[in-house]
Design a protein that fits this description.
By secondary structure, the chain is an alpha+beta fold. 23% of the residues lie in helices and 17% in strands. The protein has two domains: 1-31; 60-132, FAD/NAD(P)-binding domain. The radius of gyration is 16 Å and the shape is globular.
Length: 141
């Protein structure tokens, strides 16, 4: 149960919140997968991701893991902080690997349930601004 989440004054179950989020991003053409990522590597001007027996490529990579650090170390990121579990990011969420960002717990920074309205949103807007080459405001008109 997630309590004190904007828009749900009586709280909302985690599974229901994830389902609502999945439906919302699919409206915008996002391909949502529940598969485990087996490997990630820098490749050319982006990354290759091995998932569910398939190789997928992307321009930008966002690490948003709670405890899993193998993908970060495979990319060459050095872990630090308490228990050597965290990657270092700059103020835009960028790691030491070009075009690889990190959000949430893997950064060791304070986190909250509303990642999309906080740390993750900050990083997403930064990526959109890089793609567009300028200022971007994330809201409907």
């Amino acid at each position: 149960m997630v309590n004190n989440y904007l828009g749900f004054p009586d709280g909302i179950g985690g599974a229901e919140l994830l389902e609502l989020g999945r439906r919302q991003v699919e409206r915008f053409g996002v391909d949502v997968r529940a598969d485990r990522v087996h490997a990630a590597a820098s490749e050319g001007d982006g990354f290759s991701i091995d998932v569910a027996g398939e190789r997928v490529t992307c321009r930008y990579l966002v690490l948003a893991s709670n405890k899993r650090t193998d993908l970060a170390t495979a990319l060459g990121l050095v872990l630090g902080g308490f228990g050597n579990k965290f990657v270092t990011v700059d103020s835009a969420g960028l790691t030491a690997v070009p075009d690889c960002y990190a959000v949430g717990r893997i950064t060791g920074l304070p986190s909250q349930a509303a990642i999309s309205a906080g740390d993750g949103a900050r990083v997403a807007i930064g990526i959109v601004q890089r793609i567009r080459g300028g200022y971007y405001v994330d809201h409907d008109v």
